[in-house]
Amino acid sequence: MNVIKTKIPEVLIFEPKIFGDERGFFFESFSQKYFNDIIGYPVNFVQDNHSQSSKGVLRGLHYQLPPYAQGKLVRCVVGEVFDVAVDIRRSSPTFGQWVGVNLSAENKKQLWLPEGFAHGFLTLSETAELLYKTTNYYAPQYDRGIIWNDETIKIEWPQLGDFIMSNKDLIQPLLNESDDFL
Ligand SMILES: Cc1cn([C@H]2C[C@H](O)[C@@H](COP(=O)(O)OP(=O)(O)O[C@H]3O[C@H](C)C(=O)[C@H](O)[C@H]3O)O2)c(=O)[nH]c1=O
């Protein structure tokens, strides 16, 4: 597994070792021991999520407030997405900064974003399926969002024309109006 640092120290990109042969491929998509060694502390995932989206669907930017904050390990198993993590920890030197990476069934990359980050993605392929592990359970009453095109974050979303979003995501607050994370 290759680990790629990003401009935000806590956000990492993992590239698993792929074993290909005439039958196809095999790779370990997750190893608790390896992951803990890389992150430097024990990370306990309690929930797996799976979502499917059509081209142009943008989901996010979402996070959960403490005590239900979620770290996420995200991978794309069908198609391709532009996946984004935003640092929403007001005490962080990288507050308001973002990392974007193309995750795809082809590149098999994974994005790790710990608690304190908002998550969102834009679907680039006709259809895409995302699998992601979370370090806390879904808690709708603690679910929060930030508008996808917040001018202080300035995420450089790929230009695909009109995005498809849930009604909830069309009216998310600005970062500076959102509920404090830390
Ligand atoms: C997130 C979640 C949702 N749900 C139910 C609630 C709704 O009835 C339905 C769709 O939920 P929602 O529209 O919030 O799904 P997304 O817009 O994909 O939300 C996710 O999008 C961004 C990218 C994330 O990182 C989060 O995991 C999450 O916020 O699934 C559950 O039952 N459990 C869950 O963990």
Structure in words:
The protein has 182 residues and is mostly beta strands. It has a single domain (2-18, 25-177), classed as Sandwich (Jelly Rolls). The chain is 7% helix and 40% strand. It contains two helices and 13 strands, in the order E-E-E-E-H-E-E-E-E-E-E-E-E-E-H. The chain has helices spanning 32-39, 167-170, and strands at residues 2-5, 12-15, 19-21, 24-26, 47-54, 58-64, 72-78, 80-87, 98-104, 110-113, 117-123, 127-134, 143-145. A six-stranded antiparallel beta sheet has the order 1-2-10-7-12-5, with no helix packed on it. The chain has a five-stranded antiparallel beta sheet with strand order 9-8-11-6-13, with no helix packed on it. A two-stranded antiparallel ribbon has the order 3-4. Strand 1 (2-5) and strand 2 form a beta hairpin. The radius of gyration is 16 Å and the shape is globular. The mean pLDDT is 96. The site of dTDP-4-keto-6-deoxyglucose has 11 residues, from strand 5, strand 6 and strand 11.
CATH superfamily assignment?
Jelly Rolls
Write the CATH fold name. Answer: Jelly Rolls
Number of domains: 1
Number of helices: 2
Sheet-strand content, in percent, reads 35-45%
CATH architecture: Sandwich
Distance between the termini: 32 Å
Give the class from helix and strand content and strand pairing: mainly beta
Given the C-alpha coordinates, what overall shape results? globular
Mean pLDDT: 96
CATH class call:
Mainly Beta
Q: Which percent bin holds the helix content?
A: under 10%
What integer value in Å does the Rg equal?
A: 16 Å
Let me know the largest β-sheet.
6 strands, antiparallel
Q: Could you give the count of β-strands?
A: 13
Q: Spans of 5+ residues with little confidence (pLDDT < 50)?
A: none
Strand order of the largest sheet: 1-2-10-7-12-5
Task: Please trace the helix and strand order, writing H or E for each element.
Answer: EEEEHEEEEEEEEEH
